[in-house]
Amino acid sequence: MSVNYGSKRIVVGAHYGLRDWLAQRVTGLLMAIFTFIVLAQVLLNKGTMGYDKWAGIFSAQWMKTLTFAVIIALLYHAWIGMREIFMDYIQPVYLRLALQVFSIVWLVGCAGWAIQVLWRL
Description:
By secondary structure, the chain is an all-alpha fold. About 75% of the residues lie in helices and about 0% in strands. Helix 1 runs antiparallel to helix 3 and helix 3 runs antiparallel to helix 4. It starts with 16 loop residues before the first helix and ends with a helix.
């Protein structure tokens, strides 16, 4: 007589779980640190905040580079979240693929726009 200690589970899929979970946490942490840096610069800045002071905060090359790194992290964070939503809730494959392609095109466009804005200052 054989004893059945439970059913064998067949796990399928792309196995992105741990990598995506970790990427979400790392990108979220990077965005939080960046937020604190910007808030510190705003709060420690004397006088009224106008365009000149905002442009001054982002005019240094290190700040532009950090800001762009955070934008890339934000886009990757958004892509992981949207991909998971599409994979979980959109059943027709053609619709899921169309939404994923639209999301990629949109996020790449946002990255291009961010480059324009950052290096125009």
